[in-house]
Known about the structure:
By secondary structure, the protein is mainly α. It has helices at residues 20-58, 63-87. It has a domain at 32-81.
Amino acid sequence: xxxxxxxxxxxxxxxxxxxxxxxxxxxxxxxxxxxxxxxxxxxxxxxxxxxxxxxxxxxxxxxxxxxxxxxxxxxxxxxxxxxxxxxxxxxxxxxxxxxxxx
Length: 102
């Protein structure tokens, strides 16, 4: 780097000249926008949570009880299917393997 490529600050002349004022203003506006977005997310989340609670109170069967009921139905269906499969007449038949023919 030659002496002519340097400015009086010691910085190279290849870098663009940036002013701090617009950058600070942009940073502040981005921060304010982030806070407004966060407030909007909190309002929306609160509304969705309260609407979901109200909907769950209106249900005839609570979700936890419904899940237990469905689990018991699935277990009994699996047990019935397994016993039917094991007791089927074809389940008693064993395939004969051929001996090696030398």
